[in-house]
Write a structure and sequence with these properties.
The protein is mostly helical. The protein has two helices and two strands.
Length: 64
């Protein structure tokens, strides 16, 4: 699967919001679960988003 810049950009937003929530103790409401996300869920979502970002960099040849 090719990762588009739009996918990459969305992944960046997810990681940024989740990291802020984790370090500042901010709640993030998950619409799918209809409750606040747990810290473990935020970490899992961040890992998945980081994998998308990694794949984008790999396919674009931006291994800095």
């Amino acid at each position: 699967m090719k990762v588009t810049y739009e996918n990459f950009s969305t992944a960046q937003e997810i990681v940024g919001e989740n990291i802020d929530a984790l370090f500042k103790g901010l709640p993030i409401f998950n619409l799918n679960r209809k409750r606040e996300s747990t810290n473990v869920e935020l970490i899992d979502e961040s890992i998945a988003a980081l994998e998308v970002m990694k794949k984008y960099y790999e396919q674009e040849g931006k291994n800095k």
